[in-house]
Amino acid sequence: MRRVAAKLARAFGGLKVRYKLMILHNLFFLVLAGAAWFSLIPVLEEASARARGHQAGLAGLSAEEPRGLPETYHDPGRRAKLNLLVVLGGVYLLGVLLLELFVMPLYIYRPLRQLLEADEASRRGDTERELIPEELIQNDELGQLMASRNATLRKLRQHEQELEQALDRLERVAEDLRRKNEMLETAKRNLADQDRLASLGLLSASLAHELNTPLAVLRGSIEKLIETVEEPAAQERLARMLRVTERLHRMSESLLDFARVRRHQIEPVALAPLVEEAWQLVAIEEKAAQVRFVNEVRHDDWVLGSSDRLMQLLLNLIRNALLAVSPGGHIWVRSRRERAPAGELVVITVEDDGPGIPPDVLPEIFEAFVSTRLDARGTGLGLAVAEGIAHQHGGSISAANRAEGGARLEVRLPAASPSPAER
Question: How far apart are CA 205 and CA 259, in angstroms?
């Protein structure tokens, strides 16, 4: 019996609330009707028997054989049972309809459905529908449950929002910390580079000082030989030696410029002859004879600056291109005009068809000691010096790779107009 009762209890507990309530109020009405039926029927039968006996006595008949009584007195209990059955059935139907159509849907089923729909919206993350509207919450236990649920959800969402804000602040702090760490690392590298540049500057100044004296003696000797030797072949060799000596002297001057800041005369400078002269100096190297150089700089493009410093800038760019291309390669130098808010600019483009700049080196190509050449000829200072010269002249420099292959470096300098005499 206990097992059967336990199984029935589990089966009843697994039903939905609506079916449980239907079973319960049907059982209630059945028990009430049965109690009314079995309570009233004996009383009605006794009263009917007394009524028959009383009528029979009045008529002078026997109560057991009331054949002379009217038909209505033969079985009055049957009519009472029928009437009681009709009344109980009507009350049962009326009660069921009232409960199932009005009372239960309004006060039980609808609040439960609202709770279930709000829970489903909460699981979906629909914050607009997870709260039950206040006007639908009643003052009974279900209403208290709804109000408590809404308050809990509001606190939960508030805590989630505070947590998101804390996470955002933490991410901003972490990002700021990463940025400051990067700035610190950059400052450390810059400090190390500055120490190396300072040491290199002292070394350059010492080297330039040591070179100037023998170069001056060598140049004077070559000039005397040029005056005394008349053979054309010897004159040509001496002239080439003199050009190399002058180039070495200019290199020593560049070392001095690197070691200390010197004032330079700022004036309008024609670009086309300056580019040609820079190539002539670079062309002393043996590899230059195997490379085709194209000077497409317009003759009417002039810039404002120091011819010596601009020569150093062009030398560095053209020499880098020469070292990058293979034998049979090409180097192009072009110019164009460009409008800017500060005034008109001249853009000088140096291109080659070499292997280009590695992507990992490109963002730092203008930093000191950054070089794509791993041999003894790559110091990583050429483009750093070129950038410094461009900035000294109020311009800028940028580097990129050509779509066809090779590198492209662009220098933007303020445009200038030559004087009539210079023109």
Answer: 6
- CA distances 382 to 278, 339, 389, 395, Å, are 14, 28, 11, 17
Is the C-alpha dihedral spanning 380, 385, 391, 393 positive or negative? negative
Query: 147-156, 216-225, 317-326: which has the highest mean pLDDT?
Result: 317-326
Name the β-bridge partners of 350.
333, 409
Q: Does residue 138 belong to any structural domain of this protein?
A: no
Q: Each residue of 11-34: pLDDT tens digit?
A: 655 666 666 677 777 777 777 777
Under DSSP, is residue 415 helix (H, G, I), strand (E, B) or coil? strand
176: its two tokens: 């700021």
Query: What SS3 state is found at 410?
Result: strand
302-305/343-352 β-pairing:
unpaired
Total Cβ atoms within 10 A of residue 372: 19
Cβ contact 296:373 at 8 Å: no
Q: Which structural domain, as residue segments, surrounds residue 48?
A: 2-130
In a domain, 259, yes or no: no
Q: Which of 130, 157, 190 is the last residue of a domain?
A: 130
Question: Which residues neighbour 154 within 8 Å (Cβ) at sequence distance 6 or greater?
Answer: 131
> Would the pTM of this model clear 0.85, i.e. be above it?
no
CB 357 within 8 A of CB 372: yes
CA distance 79 to 70: 15
Query: Stretch 280-290: mean pLDDT, rounded?
Result: 84
Cβ atoms < 10 Å from Cβ of 293:
19
- What are the percentages of helix, strand and coil residues in the chain, rounded to 5? 65, 10, 25
Please name the residue ranges forming H helices in 60-140: 76-98, 104, 110-124
Q: Which residues contact 413 (CB under 8 A, 6 or more apart)?
A: 303, 304, 305, 310, 345, 346, 348, 390, 393, 394, 395
Position with higher pLDDT, 105 vs 74: 105
User: Into how many domains does the chain fold?
Assistant: 2
Write down which residue in 81, 114, 130 finishes a domain: 130
